[in-house]
Amino acid sequence: MLNRQSGVLDAVTYDSPGALSRLSVVSLVETLFRGELRYYAMMVNDDSQNAVVPSELLEENGRLKRRVADLLLVSRVDALTGLYNRAFLLQQLKEQISLHRVRGRAIGLAVVDIDHFKKINDTYGHQAGDAALKMIAATLKDTMRASDLVGRYGGEEFVVVLEDANPEGLAIVGERIRSKIEEAIFIFEGQQIPVTASVGLAEGLVKGSEEEFGSQLFALADSAMYRAKNSGRNCFILETMHRNVHGAHQQEICVDGDAR
User: Fold this and answer.
1) 128 and 18 share one domain
2) What is the pLDDT of residue 64?
3) Structure pTM?
4) Which residues of the chain carry a pLDDT beneath 50?
5) Last residue of a domain, which of 22, 52, 76?
6) Which one of 30, 36, 59, 156 is the catalytic residue?
7) Residue 251's domain spans which residues?
8) How far apart are CA 203 and CA 221, in angstroms?
9) Which helix (H) or strand (E) is 173 found in, with range?
10) In this structure, what is the dihedral angle of CA atoms 149, 246, 139, 134, given to the nearest 10 degrees?
């Protein structure tokens, strides 16, 4: 908190390793802007303090903004890959579902899972696995539109929230994700390691409970991803809320993972 004697923030409150576990980002922001700025307001009304308030306020305001920005970043971003983390991604999915209901447009979801990720870890070590996750993350960021939300759901699984979806467009997206990951050159400690992914996609118009719709949409995409795994990996399968659509040229691009 603000040290009333020195007029600066005690860094330990916000920079200590356990800070985020003790206070939520929201409560921190509320403390900063309700508590600390109220103190400055009191200083402004004190004629004896007027001479020092402007420069101190500007300097402290800059520090507060940087701290809040850092806290918000930590609360939203996966530390390893730099993508959105699971909690923030699910929050954004809820907001997008509400928005698409109002607009009357379909929303899409892609679940991307690295093939044989355990084998990469067991063969080349966990550092290689981490490097593979970073490579997939970078590939997804480069492949998707700026309006798409890309996040790491957990482990070797990634999720993409897609605006204004339709089956034809999602089929193109699924093949693009699959092919870009397959074509990416992954080299770890001088050795090139083949990496592929299985992709499940789902889309639909928002109907009924938004929470229930979100659960159903994710379940469809997740199920499609597992079916892609069972079809030989390195392929995509697309589902809608009404009908099933297999990825174009699926039989050509789904291959036995053990043969790679």
Assistant:
1) no
2) 72
3) 0.70
4) 1-23, 25-26, 29-30, 33, 37, 40-41, 43-44, 49-50, 244-260
5) 76
6) 156
7) 86-259
8) 8
9) helix 167-183
10) 80
Q: Structurally, how many domains does the chain consist of?
A: 2
- The residue assigned the tokens 């579902």 is 97
What radius of gyration, in Å, describes the C-alpha atoms of the chain?
A: 24
Task: Count Cβ atoms below 10 Å from residue 28 Cβ, excluding itself.
Answer: 20
Q: Within a domain: residue 171?
A: yes
List Cβ neighbours of 97 (8 Å cut-off, separation of 6 or more). 107, 206, 210, 213, 214, 217
pLDDT digits 0-9 by tens, 156-201: 999 999 999 999 999 999 999 999 999 999 999 999 999 999 999 9
- The encoded tokens of residue 197 equal 């992914």
Residue 250 lies in a domain: yes
Same domain, residue pair 126 and 23:
no
Strand duo 236-240 + 197-204: pairing: parallel
Residues 91, 18: one domain? no
Q: Are residues 69 and 91 in the same domain?
A: no
Is 168 part of the annotated catalytic residue set? no
What is the spatial distance between Cα 236 and Cα 18, in angstroms, rounded to a whole number?
A: 41
| Per-residue pLDDT, 53 | 55
Is 2 within the bounds of a domain?
no
In whole angstroms, give the CA distance from residue 111 to residue 200.
5
What pLDDT score does 59 carry? 75
Cβ atoms of 113 and 156 within 8 Å: the answer is yes
Are residue 23 and residue 116 in the same domain, yes or no? Answer: no
Cβ 108 vs Cβ 58: under 8 Å: no
